[in-house]
Write a structure and sequence with these properties.
heterotetramer, A alpha+beta (188), B mainly alpha (169), C mainly alpha (617), D alpha+beta (394), B: 169 residues, mainly alpha, Four Helix Bundle (Hemerythrin (Met), subunit A), 2 domains, 76% helix, C: mainly alpha, 21 helices
Chain lengths: 188, 169, 617, 394
């Protein structure tokens, strides 16, 4: 099924999920609102027509100008071999962009659907700051309940890949040296 | 005057001292692993005394069974079941009282036996060491029944251990 | 090149020159003085044979006490502990020697010659040699760097060790003969017992050789002979690990298409282990602060001492045995069993979880493998009908066919069972779980460093040699060659002694055979992956144990029938024995052919580096 | 630290008695495996909850080698970022270069000359061989066999010689770059490379004799760490780890780029030869077979290279301008699917660079597989997944 067809199918199924399709992009994707993401994800995973069983990657992007954080999911749908050579093939590919507001970036976790989401969600929380609700490996601390950090230390403050992130000049007594003393690398 | 005549008592007292010192150590230390090590001293010292009495087979058996086998198993068991890295004895008062009573009774019995026996010293004891062949002959002829009973007992123990350790399903 | 200065080492050549001068002064002066003292004393003794007692008493008893009395106030005044201790030690020694001389009717001549002539002369010669080395340092280095020096040193070392062993055995035998010699007048007894006096011994040596009697005199005591032999055994056990480690590294290198150690010592890095030993001694001596320090320090010795004790009963040849125990086999097994305790205690005392894992594995592996090991050893013991190792060896002196491994099929199986179990009991690959580096970091010796760590290695390699030695004695013809001993030249001359020692009988053959088995252990280690703990125990309890039980049973029945009462079976057994020996011959030839093939087709590097093909490289 | 970690996991209950194995239960112990441990292949740390030799629970902790590679990507031009990709999967630097270059080229629509594509295939496949050699050798090392490791390095050295002759580097190549490769292959390269392949191919049989079919090795790895095909896909496994579970999936066939569709090669998959399908041995043996296939591809590519003259590089590769668009591009790297997400904002510098390392995704299945195995199986499983921590932590 083409991405256009999938987008139409989703729009039809979830009329109030705010589904938008960006087909002109080199990375054609579908935009979903975070509050509907869980039902959409379940549909994508379980629908016999789609069966997106392979979560390839979750990317977090900070669109600071739009005041939004995006979690971008890339899926494969694998097809059991039909030909004699036993090669598996891709029945379809899909990208879903879940846009969450920057001040309260809550996105439901999909770990129960795709095991691979576990570490990807933890990484996306750690680096970009999207808080995945009901993640199985969550901790409670001053920042509320959130997935456990994975790449940064457990007590790290802030999310380094947010565009307004300021690099700490000291961590547990370890001084940091940045280029020209800047705490925020200038972009561009 | 031969070298051996004055060397032998020295070695005897050396071994006896090791045995006594280790035995006291076992009682006094509260660390189980250290107690096991002291036990090695006791068992090894007794083996040394056997060697001194020319009972080579007995000494070797003592070393191989007790020092090399049982002791290793004791330490092994301690390691498997320990709660904290340094296992300590913490006997309650009733346990201490029971142990003291048993110890005293045992001591009294041993003292009675030791004083009751007429220790006749052979003119030159065991010039000819008891060979393995003699021991084997004795075990398989004169003492055949006790020998076999002991082996059956061990078999029962082994089966019991296997039963206890078997998988539940 | 400009003088590079390393900031933390000050280059002070003047200091070094001063040190050298000082050392030379001490060595030369001391050596010459000692030499002169020795010679003068010799002269004095010869000139005044009647006054020997007084002279010796004054020099060996009174003089040290006086010197000590002088040193103590000096040390106390200067606050020097060394001087004070030295003073007290001198007083002690003087009192001891003086007391001995006065209280016992000991022959002062013996003490005098030993203490005042032979001692100073030997010390003087040693010091002069050291001084000479310092003077001719550059020349010595030039000599050492010459092409064949390293090889000659290496081979010379081996030859001289063999000669030393041979000479000491010769001397011991000679002294033992003297003690039983009826031609000597052995009516007098000396204070310490023994049968020979100096005077009696001297009658054996004419003229200038008479001082030899002074050297031989102490050797008549079993205790002294034992001490010297024990020193030899410990020395030998120290050399075994050093060279087994070096050899293992060379073999491993060749197996892995590398070269192995090539630098230290020149010829194929033969001194590598000495360099490593020096490095280890200089390393930080770490004791884990949270561990049990006492046990941690004790554990290496608990592993090392039993491994050495095993050599008390391990014969190298009929007469080359420290104590020919009738239960030697059991004793050696017991010692190898106790060695485990050191390993377990080491793992426990380190307070490191990986160490505890290693210790636990060692414990359960050792306790289980001791059983099939002992059972497999029962087979040759039953076949031989003896437990004394020298007796078992004696049965195998009639050439290759009489070796116990080919005695009957069960013996051959038992040999392989024993060898497998012995690998496990020495924690060698593929059973090296207690120290398996990919799972347990370093297992029981994770926290050990330096000298203590090296003790574990000494213990391991000594145990490897001991189990190989047992295998050789019990299965592979002990110290006898593949030709029957009856073919050996019987003469008493050196040539036939050499032929006998190299081809028919003696410790050299024994060590060579052990070396072959050690080589197989090394070969296995660098070829096979490691087994998992459950597979180790499975192999022991479900494979080796039933197998060895069957073998013991089968061998019992075989022995029951293999005698003159059953002529038919006896002749059948003979045929089987012949066939098995043939198998043995084939295996030996195959191994030899393998080695020759490998040597002929050896390559230093496979192919050349690809980059050499490109222009400009 | 370890205790708090376990407390934070609500699904873990320390009092639960796992009696499926039916063994005698002893004191449980928390063991910290890593970050300095010989068989964690770098600075991976796994907290193991063990009962004797049994592992009840394994919680991996990563991030010890985190070098902010994605943050750096937001501050340098794509051409400058190539060396940083080398340092992710440092055993297969060429493949990383290739993935990033292809992603940028797909985003900007840059055309790559034909000759450069062939060179890229040769180097990517050679690097796959080199990477699998290390994987094989290190796996032998994990199993306690030291010798295969040195054999593997003996062969790898000569591949590195070829790389050195081409780009001057032996580990971090930066050879494949945006728009092509940095330099043409040296003279006589084709001959020397062919010579090497002739030398190398028989060695694969040698490894099989020495290690793959060694009885002990098979006993250690077969039926250990079984991953079913469904589980593998669900956990996002890729590369040899996925194919070991019997899934015949390879991006070189599914989405051929660099002209992979012009080469004739097979996709080896696990067949459960020595045990159950998807065990450690299957994953290991897929790599061995892949080396064989890579040799096939390189042979064909060398033939093709001889007949493909021309440019080796697009002129404007150094100064590409990224459109205000995004791309997610994956290739089949040595360890699995290596993906790059790149968001452009119209300038020369990407707005966001995200690397999807195959090791990262493959490693996330650790706890699922390591649960309820023996301590000695932990290195076996980790080694069969073949992680490179540089790529996991980025």
């Amino acid at each position: 099924m083409t991405i256009e067809g999938i987008a139409n199918l989703l729009k039809e199924k979830f009329p109030d999920a705010g589904i938008e399709a960006r087909l002109e992009s080199r990375h054609p994707h579908v935009i979903v609102k975070p509050e509907h993401w869980l039902t959409v994800a379940e549909f994508l995973r379980n629908d016999p027509q789609l069966k997106f069983d392979w979560l390839r990657c979750i990317t977090g992007v900070d669109y600071i100008e739009d005041k939004q954080l995006a979690a971008i999911y890339d899926f494969h749908s694998t097809q059991r071999p039909a030909q004699s050579d036993g090669l598996w093939s891709a029945r379809g590919e899909l990208s879903v962009k879940v846009l969450a507001p920057r001040d309260n970036p809550m996105v439901p976790s999909v770990c129960h659907l795709w095991g691979a989401a576990d570490w990807h969600e933890r990484e996306t929380y750690d680096l970009v700051g999207i808080n995945f609700q009901n993640h199985p490996d969550s901790v409670d601390d001053l920042n509320g309940r959130h997935p456990r950090r994975i790449l940064c230390p457990d007590d790290w403050q802030g999310h380094p890949l947010q565009k307004d992130y300021e690099f700490p000049l000291e961590y547990h007594g370890i001084p940091a040296v940045t280029e020209f003393g800047q705490t925020r690398p200038l972009h561009g | 005057m031969n070298v051996n005549t004055w060397l032998e008592p020295i070695v005897f007292f050396l071994f006896a001292g090791v045995v006594l010192f280790s035995a006291i150590g076992i009682v006094l230390t509260r660390n189980i692993v250290r107690a096991a090590l002291f036990l090695l001293g006791t068992l090894g010292g007794v083996a040394g005394l056997y060697f001194l009495l020319m009972a080579n087979l007995l000494a070797a058996i003592q070393l191989i069974v007790y020092a090399g086998g049982t002791l290793v198993l004791i330490v092994f068991g301690v390691m498997l079941t320990s709660k904290s890295p340094w296992v300590r004895f913490a006997p309650s008062r009733s346990e201490a009282a029971a142990a003291t009573t048993i110890g005293l009774v045992l001591f009294a019995a041993l003292a009675k036996i030791v004083t009751g026996i007429d220790w006749t010293v052979a003119a030159h004891p065991a010039d000819q060491p008891a060979t393995v062949r003699q021991v084997g002959n004795l075990l398989l002829q004169q003492y055949l029944v006790p020998f076999e009973v002991a082996s059956v007992l061990l078999l029962v123990v082994m089966i019991g251990a296997a039963y206890l350790a078997r998988p539940e399903n | 090149m400009s003088q590079a200065t390393i900031p933390w080492i000050e280059p002070v050549p003047e200091k070094r020159v001063a040190m050298r001068r000082k050392a030379l002064l001490v060595l030369f002066g001391g050596g010459l003085t000692a030499l002169i003292v020795g010679c003068v004393m010799l002269g004095v003794f010869r000139a005044l044979p009647d006054q020997v007692g007084t002279i010796v008493f004054i020099l060996a008893g009174v003089l040290p006490i006086l010197g000590g009395l002088g040193l103590i106030p000096l040390g106390l005044l200067n606050g020097s502990v060394v001087l004070t201790t030295l003073g007290f030690a001198q007083i002690g020694i003087g009192a001891l020697v003086g007391g001995l001389l006065k209280a016992t009717p000991i022959d002062p001549l013996v003490v005098g010659v030993l203490l005042l002539v032979i001692g100073p002369i030997a010390a003087g010669l040693a010091m002069l040699t050291a001084a000479g080395v310092i003077v001719a340092f550059k020349q010595v280095v030039q000599l050492l760097l010459m092409r064949w020096t390293a090889l000659i040193l290496f081979c010379g070392g081996i030859v001289s060790i063999i000669l030393l062993v041979w000479a000491h055995a010769f001397v011991f035998r000679y002294v033992a003969q003297l003690a039983n010699d009826t031609t000597l007048n052995t009516s007098a007894t000396t204070t310490f017992g023994g049968d020979l006096t100096i005077a009696e011994l001297s009658t054996r040596f004419s003229g200038n050789w008479r001082p030899v009697a002074f050297v031989l005199w102490p050797l008549q005591f079993g205790l002294i002979r034992d001490l010297i032999a024990m020193g030899g055994v410990i020395g030998f056990i120290s050399i075994i690990p050093l060279y087994t480690i070096w050899w293992e590294r060379k073999v491993a290198g060749r197996i892995q298409s590398r070269l192995g150690p090539m630098r230290v010592g020149g010829w194929h890095g033969w001194a590598q282990s000495f360099a490593d030993g020096m490095k280890l001694i200089c390393k930080e001596d770490f004791v884990p602060p949270e561990g049990d320090g006492t046990l941690f320090r004790l554990a290496p010795y608990l592993a090392f001492v039993p491994a050495i004790c095993a050599f008390i009963a391990l014969p190298f040849a009929t007469t080359y045995v420290f104590r020919d125990l009738d239960v030697a086999l059991l004793f050696i097994l017991a010692m190898l069993g106790i060695e485990v305790l050191g390993v377990i205690i080491a793992g426990w005392a380190s307070n490191n979880k990986w160490s505890v894992y290693g210790a636990m594995r060692e414990a359960c592996q050792m306790v289980s493998y001791e059983i099939p090991m002992g059972m497999a050893l029962l087979v040759p013991v039953m076949t031989a009908g003896a437990l004394r190792l020298t007796d078992i060896a004696k049965l195998q002196q009639d050439g290759f066919g009489s070796w116990l491994a080919w005695n009957n099929p069960f013996c051959l199986i038992a040999f392989f069972c024993y060898y497998t179990a012995s690998l496990a009991s020495c924690k060698r690959a593929p059973f090296d779980l207690p120290e398996s580096e990919s799972e347990l970091v370093a297992g029981f010796h994770t926290e050990y460093s330096g000298f203590r760590w090296s003790l574990f290695f000494f213990a391991e390699y000594a145990a490897m040699f001991a189990v190989s030695g047992l295998a050789v004695i019990l299965f592979l013809g002990a110290w006898y060659g593949p030709l029957p001993l009856s073919w050996a030249p019987a003469g008493n001359d050196i040539a036939s002694a050499v032929v006998r020692g190299l081809l028919f009988d003696g410790p050299i053959l024994f060590i060579l055979k052990c070396g072959l088995l050690l080589y197989v252990q090394i070969w296995i280690r660098w070829t096979l992956p490691r087994i998992r703990i459950d597979q180790v125990l499975y192999a022991c309890i479900q494979v080796l144990l039933p197998l060895t039980m069957l073998v013991v049973l089968g061998s019992t029945f075989w022995l029951l029938f293999d005698n003159s009462a059953h002529p038919a079976f006896e002749s059948f057994a003979k045929v089987v024995r012949g066939l098995l020996s043939l198998v043995g011959v084939v295996i030996s030839i195959a191994i030899a052919g393998f080695i020759i093939f490998g040597f002929v087709n050896r390559r230093r590097l496979v192919g050349t580096l690809a980059i050499e093909h490109f222009p400009g490289s | 630290m370890a205790d708090t970690v376990l407390e934070s996991r609500p699904d873990l209950n320390l009092d639960v008695v796992r009696d499926e194995i039916g063994d005698v239960r002893t004191e449980e112990m928390l063991v910290n495996m890593g970050p300095q441990h010989p068989s964690t292949h770098g600075v991976l740390r796994i907290v193991l909850r063990t009962d004797g030799e049994m592992v009840l629970e394994a919680v991996p902790h990563i991030g010890y080698l985190h070098r902010c590679a994605e943050k750096i990507g937001e501050n340098v031009a794509p051409y400058q970022y190539i060396p940083y990709t080398d340092r992710m999967d440092y055993l297969a630097g060429m493949n990383n270069n290739l993935a990033f270059s292809l992603a940028i080229e797909a985003l900007t629509g840059l055309e790559v000359p034909k000759r450069a594509q062939v060179i890229r295939v040769i180097f990517a496949e050679m690097n796959r061989i080199a990477s699998h050699l290390v994987s094989m050798g290190a796996y032998g090392l994990d199993m306690g066999a030291f010798t295969p490791f040195l054999y593997a390095f003996r062969e790898r050295e000569r591949i590195l010689d070829l790389f050195e002759a081409s780009c001057g580097a032996r580990l971090t190549y930066s050879y494949i770059t945006i728009g092509g490769v940095t330099d043409d292959v040296p003279e006589r390269f084709i001959d020397v490379c062919r010579e090497y392949l002739d030398y190398f191919e028989p060695k694969i049989a040698e490894y099989n004799n020495l290690l793959s079919f060694n009885h002990i090795f098979v006993k250690r790895t077969a039926n250990v760490g079984i991953i079913s095909a469904e589980k593998a896909i669900n956990w996002g496994l890729s590369g040899p780890s996925l194919r070991g579970s019997g899934v015949k999936w390879d991006l070189r066939k599914v989405h051929p780029d660099c002209g992979y569709d012009e080469y004739d090669f097979d996709i080896p998959v696990g067949q459960g030869l020595k045990g159950q399908l998807g065990d450690c041995w299957d994953r290991y043996f897929v790599r061995i077979q892949e080396m064989q296939q890579s040799v096939r591809i390189v042979r064909q590519a060398l033939d093709k290279l001889a007949g493909t003259p021309g440019e080796y590089k697009h002129k404007s590769g150094k100064s590409v301008k990224l459109p205000k668009d995004e791309i997610y591009y994956e290739i089949e790297g040595a360890r699995g699917q290596l993906g790059f997400f790149i968001q452009g904002d119209g300038s020369q510098i990407p707005y966001r660079v995200k690397a999807r390392g195959p090791s990262y995704c493959n490693l996330s299945i650790t706890n699922e597989v390591v649960k309820d195995c023996l301590l000695a199986d932990v290195p076996a499983i980790i080694g069969s997944i073949d992680v490179v921590m540089g790529e996991v932590d980025r």
